[in-house]
Design a protein that fits this description.
single chain, alpha/beta, Rossmann fold, Dihydrodipicolinate Reductase, domain 2, 2 domains, seven-stranded mixed sheet, 16 strands
Length: 404
């Protein structure tokens, strides 16, 4: 299948490597505003024994689809640009795989949904967390009625001061690019809850703040520099990212700066941050269940806790990344039961290779499923409604955001 990859940054490596390993796919085109990053991905193809792809600028994307006779487009570009490539590819009759989130605002999401309906085209969004064995086990227990009817969910996600800080160094720090963490990051989690419960969000109320990162903070961590590379003030700053110390980061970003001026190593406390780092959300679902959700992007450790309360008991998932995982079923009138399952600690809990197998090989997924355009929109709409609630201070109905 003649394939093009649009957006050749860090996340695109998963797809370049995965496609290069599969004889059924031939990456014939790369599309990105930066030729240095595209050259990096061509070196990956050569290292895998494949031929190099032709390089195309975004302005010639539709021409690329025709000239290269593209059958599959993989979209891993900046989130705010996803809709342009998805819509053009679907109208050209091309299958599309898009990295999450599908897009960043309601108008773009509606345009994508309408195009899917008009064309009958194939759109898959890579919500890989569904393919983590731990998350599949949670869904199985809930579907089997292990705690009866689910009435409420409590979900806390903690990004530490390494991973969490990274969203404030790169293009994600501008909500116009990423939709904020409610869209870029939390849509992962909202998709899981939709999938776990077999439910759709109806009403969202949220409060968000920029409490830790950005300028003028009182915690004493901030240092005076705009980006880490070449800055003496960043030399021993625990929040600084040193691109020259990592071969991949150097080749993908530091060596590419001369073409587009993009700095991957911004000071997390420098001006220009327009996203939140501390967010609380209350969601009501069409089943009557509710969820309280909190995302903290400056925690001392990385992990998450999810609790389901039902008519027959309680199910608890606790994960401390790379360290500890447990699934505990606590039935009413009975002793707790451990349902922890083996899983990897890398690649999103082993989800990355599994989602690739499902997307590219059509392999059985042990109860997981690929998110289509509508399911991706359902994951997105909670975050979009939360963003609006941040602005208005009011509850927001999801049907006011998207017509699904």
């Amino acid at each position: 299948m003649r394939t093009a990859i649009v957006g050749t940054g860090h996340r695109a490596q998963l797809f370049t490597e995965g496609l290069a390993k599969r004889d059924a796919y031939d990456v014939v085109a790369l599309c990105d505003p930066n030729s240095v990053r595209m050259a990096f991905h061509n070196r990956m193809l050569l290292a895998a024994g494949r031929r190099t792809a032709h390089l195309w600028p975004p302005a010639r994307f539709e021409e690329m689809l025709r000239v290269e006779r593209i059958e599959l487009v993989v979209v891993t570009s900046v989130d705010a640009t996803h809709d342009h490539y998805i819509v053009a590819a679907l109208r050209a009759g091309t299958r599309v795989i898009c990295e999450k989130p599908m897009t960043t605002d309601a108008a773009k999401a509606q345009r994508i949904l309408d195009t899917v309906r008009e064309t009958g085209g194939s759109l898959s969004v890579a919500y890989n967390y569904r393919f983590n064995p731990v998350h599949r086990r949670v869904r199985q227990l809930l579907a089997e009625g292990a705690i009866g009817r689910v009435h409420s969910v409590h979900f806390e996600w903690m990004l530490d001061v390494s991973h969490g800080a990274d969203y404030f160094r790169r293009w994600h720090r501008d909500k116009a690019n990423s939709g904020g963490l409610m869209v870029h990051k939390a849509s992962h989690h909202f998709d899981l809850v939709n999938w776990w419960l077999g439910a759709e969000p109806c009403l969202v109320y949220a409060r968000g703040q920029l409490a830790f990162y950005g300028p003028d903070r009182e915690h004493g961590y901030a240092r005076e520099y705009q980006r880490a590379h070449g800055s003496a003030a960043a030399a021993d700053d625990p929040f600084a990212l040193h691109l020259a110390d990592n071969t991949t980061m150097r080749e993908l970003y530091l060596d590419a700066e001369g073409e587009d001026g993009y700095y991957r190593d911004r000071n997390v406390f420098a001006p220009g941050v327009t996203i939140e780092d501390d967010m609380a959300v209350l969601v009501t679902y069409d089943t009557g269940a509710t969820m309280t959700y909190h995302l903290t992007a400056y925690a001392p450790f990385e992990g998450y806790r999810v609790v389901f309360n039902g008519s027959g008991g309680r199910l608890e998932l606790n994960v401390e990344e790379s360290t500890f995982t447990s699934i505990a079923l606590r039935p009413l009138w009975a002793e707790p039961v451990d349902h922890t399952v083996p899983h990897d600690h890398e690649g999103h809990g082993g989800a990355d290779p599994r989602v690739l197998a499902a997307l590219l090989d059509g392999e059985p997924t042990d109860g997981a499923s690929i998110a289509d355009g509508r399911q991706a929109a359902l994951a997105l709409v909670t975050g979009l409604a939360a963003n609006r609630s941040f602005e208005t201070g009011l509850p927001v109905r999801t049907d006011e955001i998207l017509k699904l």
